[in-house]
Input
Amino acid sequence: MEKDLSILRKKINEALIKTITRATTRAPVEIIRSLKKVEKEEESSLAVEQLKLMLENFEYGEKKVIPICQDTGVLNFFILLGDKFPIISDFRTIIENAVDKATELVPLRGNSVDPLTNQNPENNLGINVPPIYLSISENSSNLKITILAKGGGAENISKLFMLNPSNALEEFQEKIVKAIKEAGGMPCPPVILGIGIGGDASSCMKLAKEALIRPLNQRHSREDVARLEIDLIQKINDLNIGVMGLGGKVTCLDVHIEVAMRHPASFPVGLIVQCYSHRWASFEMNEEGEIIDET
Amino acid sequence: MKHELNLPVDDRDLINLKIGDVVYLNGILITARDQVHKRIVEYFKNKKDLPASFKNLKGSAIYHCGPIIKESNGTYQIISGGPTTSQRMDDFENDVVKILGIKLVIGKGGMKNLDTKGNKIAYLSFTGGCGAIIHKKIEKIIDVEWKDLGICEAVWILKVKDFGPLIVSQDASGNSLYK
Output
């Protein structure tokens, strides 16, 4: 039994290294499709020229298996662990080991810096990194891990708003549009926004981050939430910030909102900004360690 | 308009660069980001010597970039190296370009405090996220300084070929594409 688990651990480790490589060296198909559509619609020649370079860069990175962006980001791990999956502990160790190996193999940039001393161990490890978000799925014997490579430029635009519930629904849209307007070209537009409404200060930020993983152009299942998403996409595109802030019709590829019940006195809204190079990948394996799905 | 320029450039080259123009660069430039900018200004204020290689940068370019570098047997190879957000260097850049004699600043997103007119320099935008393609544009890594700052923050002295398309977004007449 113990021997079987060590094989399974090895399989998780290998799947993680492969998934980190995929997440950082190629853009998801839906992003490529979306940027090609923008290239056709965009009238600004500076936007079109840059979109061409972006697409060429994606192609080149994938062909050479090198990071499409030098900022390979902070690797965020979203674990969906089936309650019947044989391994339920040690995930931090397994993940740290994979991050260490992938940093050397891909290679990734060393993006973990001590906040007080500025020391960089160059292995993407250290105090409280990488961030790991664990959810349990009931009556499942599978393990799914999604990896989001989150760059610094876009992350720096992220915000938390603690609003007054009496006028929050009107105010939150203004706040978000203002944040994107002030950011201009900094987050590498056209951007994708993850927004969490409700919950508390920390849970709305987590919702906002998880919202980024939803497939592009997929609306929230609740119609009133979906309408907010469409409204915001429109308002942000009206800003005319354009590709990399040099003007144009498209500033935003998509807005994903997730909601949670709030405290009567609080109306938290979390905003996580993602660049056009929205890099993520995932795998799902069964209890035998066989890959049953890959993105 | 399209320009192909060899580094170092002079004031005449700068006069011809107008916002919206596209530039391709050949020659030697350096990467510099947050910690390097801070250190250059500190060293200058404290009259501390800068690395000797910094003396040859008159008319050259600073590239806001924290690359991925592979080191094997003492040689370095650049793996990926797109631009980083320039506004983080905003408080230091006017001093840094004066200290080093820099004529072109390359990055992404533009700079709010950069005095391109007063310094007779231009700011060129390279498309963010385009790190892999740099592989084709860097002929070689000539040297590295201040490696103690870490791979990403160090000064990489690069020989570039056909480095572009770079968009002139803030020109030496003080015009800017960023509103």
Remarks:
- Residues 2-170 of chain B form a domain with the fumarase fold (CATH 3.20.130.10).
